[in-house]
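Hi V.,

Quick status before I head out on leave. The structure for the redesign project is tokenized and pasted below; the design run finished overnight.
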């Protein structure tokens, strides 16, 4: 085998491993936490000198640094006992535009997946006057990004050819965005399930395209980092509408500014 073919084989094996590897859930001990312990999201002001950044992180005894999607912000880890002090220092530092905890977000788990196949039982659709809306549009030409636990591409009553390739905000790859819970698939189905096919239920905008973005793990938990990266990826990849069916009650008084930039 030649050197060049060996390189190609290595690349193929690496990509295959990424595609096959299961997405790890966030640790169970975070079930009731407000944010990821020890993690701070930091956004520097434009043109902040690299040496200032390096010196600041050294002063704070930063243990780890990683960059978000497109480098919009950095996620740093500091020793647990220094978290409050480090956050206060960063929030007051002149080269820092914003610093905050890496908040946790949770989807609303409604229990077992719905199994009702009858449109007549989708009472909320009547409240939305969807039949009148369908006379004008069923979402053709609109791309809806579903930021959730992913979307399952299979099933008898799926999305046809309207399910676009997605993104996994945990790994940063456009792979492994499939649903390992069911919540994201349920939400996407409510938005754009195949309709007029004599199977299952109907979607509100059944001609719209779905752009799946995995920002919640199999326990329906995500972070500021995954949500913000998912938003940026969705806007970079043609989303007209972004749906986020998750939330938190643990924010500071000023809120999660990373998500509201």
């Amino acid at each position: 085998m030649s050197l060049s073919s060996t390189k190609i084989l290595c690349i193929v094996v690496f990509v295959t491993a990424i595609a096959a590897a299961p997405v790890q859930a966030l640790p169970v001990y975070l079930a009731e936490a407000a944010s990821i312990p020890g993690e701070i999201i930091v956004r520097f002001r434009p043109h902040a000198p690299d040496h200032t950044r390096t010196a600041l992180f050294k002063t704070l005894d930063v243990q780890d640094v990683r960059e978000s999607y497109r480098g919009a912000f950095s996620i740093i880890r500091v020793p647990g006992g220094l978290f409050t002090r480090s956050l206060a220092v960063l929030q007051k530092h002149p080269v820092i535009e914003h610093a905050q905890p890496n908040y946790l977000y949770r989807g609303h788990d409604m229990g077992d997946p719905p199994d009702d196949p009858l449109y007549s039982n989708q009472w909320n659709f009547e409240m939305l006057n969807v039949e009148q809306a369908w006379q004008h549009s069923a979402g053709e030409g609109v791309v809806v990004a579903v930021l959730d636990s992913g979307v399952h591409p299979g099933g008898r009553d799926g999305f046809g050819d309207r399910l676009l390739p997605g993104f996994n905000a945990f790994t940063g790859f456009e792979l492994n965005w499939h649903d390992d819970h069911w919540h994201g698939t349920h939400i996407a189905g409510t938005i754009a399930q195949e309709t007029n096919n004599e199977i299952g239920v109907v979607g509100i905008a059944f001609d719209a395209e779905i752009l799946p973005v995995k920002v919640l793990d199999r326990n329906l938990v995500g972070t500021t980092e995954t949500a913000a990266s998912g938003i940026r990826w969705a806007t970079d990849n043609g989303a007209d509408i972004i749906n986020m069916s998750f939330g938190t009650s643990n924010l500071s008084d000023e809120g999660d500014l990373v998500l509201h930039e």
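Above is the designed sequence. The helical segments are 3-20, 50-59, 83-92, 123-127, 130-134, 183-192, 224-236.

G. will cover questions while I'm gone.

Best,
W.
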